[in-house]
Amino acid sequence: MNSASLLKCFSGIAILLCLSLHQVKPKQSPLPAGEDCSGIWKKDPKSASGVYWIKPAGAPQSFQAYCDMNQDGGSTVIQRHNGEDSLDFNRMWQEYKDGFGNPAGEHWIGLEKIYLLSNQPNKKSELSVNLQSFNNDKACSKYESFQISNEAKGYQLSLGAYSGTGGDAFRGQDNIQDYKSQEGSKFSTIDMDNDDCNPCIRGDIAMNSCSQSHDSGWWFSACGMADLNGEWHSKDNYMDWESSIYWKTWKPRESMKMSELKLKTV
């Protein structure tokens, strides 16, 4: 082998060694502080509210969530909608599955994460629905259990007994077609229609998709009395919108100033 060939050979080996030394290692998610925010609080009741890394039982990797910590325990915020980040909730199925937004601000944590949080072995999840109107009135609807199925079953909604000041909008009024109970409903988005409209009739208007008419993803029936992922409307224009953040057992004509969904595991 002549000198030119040797130089070429050694150059090739050097490049391969260099590449092997500088291979990008896959990112490892940070160590979780706990399985969920309730677990973090139980380990340290002095834990402050904020964004933590958590990893529910069965989750393939940890993820970020906002933990609301108070003297009664820790809750994992799975949704916050208040217009402050101008976040668009009119999204496709994959985005609702994965989650979007900023955990410290407006966000939807993701259906798959909600499934993992609400299906942990030997744990029960309680749901708090926190609402605020533009008059700064506040209400809270609580469900003693909350669970959704896996994606194959459409992330179907299951609820326990209701208590609180906001009314049981999820269960609606089954004697009125538009206000059928949403318990047992699968999740719907603009590209994945799982509602009961075939069609739904509103006055002289027929529609086949609650997600398309309400600009959101949600557990629609036909279409129901609750949708907290609807379009946010400002203080000067929040009355009588179909595509709005509504909880009709509390403020039936108003779009909410703020909604927040929180899970506490017991």
TrEMBL record:
Signal peptide: 1-26
Residues in Fibrinogen C-terminal domain copies: 28-266
Pfam families given in the database record: Fibrinogen_C
Alphabetical keyword list: Disulfide bond, Signal
Gene Ontology terms: biological process: negative regulation of T cell activation; regulation of immune response
UniProt cross-references to InterPro entries, sorted A to Z: Fibrinogen-like_C (IPR036056), Fibrinogen_a/b/g_C_1 (IPR014716), Fibrinogen_a/b/g_C_dom (IPR002181), Fibrinogen_C-term_domain (IPR050373), Fibrinogen_CS (IPR020837)
CC terms in the record's Gene Ontology section: extracellular space
Disulfide bond among keywords: yes
Nucleotide-binding in keyword set: no
NCBIfam families per UniProt: GGGWT_bact
Protein name per the record: Angiopoietin-related protein 5-like
Source organism (scientific name): Geotrypetes seraphini
Gene: LOC117367027
